[in-house]
Write a structure and sequence with these properties.
Strand order of the largest sheet: 1-2-3-4-5-6-7-8-9-10-11-12
Largest sheet: 12 strands, antiparallel, barrel
CATH topology: Porin
Shape: globular
Helix content: under 10%
Mean pLDDT: 87
CATH class: Mainly Beta
Structural class: mainly beta
CATH superfamily: monomeric porin ompg
CATH architecture: Beta Barrel
Length: 243
Amino acid sequence: MRFIFTIYFIFCCLLFSNAQFTDSTTKFINITSGGSINKTKDGSSYLFNNNTQFNVKKKRTVLNAAAAWLYGLTPEKLTNNDFTLSSNVNLYRHFTDFYYWGLVNYTTSYSLNIKSQGQTGIGIAYNFLNKPNIWLNVSNGLIGELSRIIENDTAVINYQTLRNSLRIQFMFKAGSRFTFKTGNFFQPSLKYFSDHIISSDTEFAYLLWKGLSLNSRLLYNKISRTEKENLILTYGLGYQKYF
């Protein structure tokens, strides 16, 4: 476990040291790294949550890419080894608050019994609030999914389905230091409503100095098909920069 922690620490340092700053603000990078450690006489429990986000903005196009890795271990067993890689593009045409989007997403999750899950889709979105200190966005679209999951903790099955994808995002800034933001997904299958995905990602951040912040993150995920869910609370450091 000390070896894993050492690799984790080096990885985080590399992420922070490679940021390049210029006078331009067409690009944005956001890196957060947190976790928790619980040590008892029976052993130690570890939970690490790492996220990287990169955005490129042009006149009518915004490209977003993100990666997340969640790793958890107790003295008895592995609890989390969950990885998500996603990319999406937003296309603006005649209205500044209305846009079309396209999405590609890949997930593998030990805690949710997902061996692999690929999603791709298109939809529309609208900013109901769009100010520097407050933002509310609602989007909806169709997602095609191809998954390989463990059902009933025993059987490995492959299946594909078409989902409706509803997303609500909200951000609020209090002054220049405190930021609250949350993103929530509800993705029911169009064939079976009982087959649905619920996902929520909420973050509190307090700016310390020049983009460096303290943050706390609350994650919730539920996959009805595998009958698995998780609730994760971590705390750590974040760094963001426009360049």
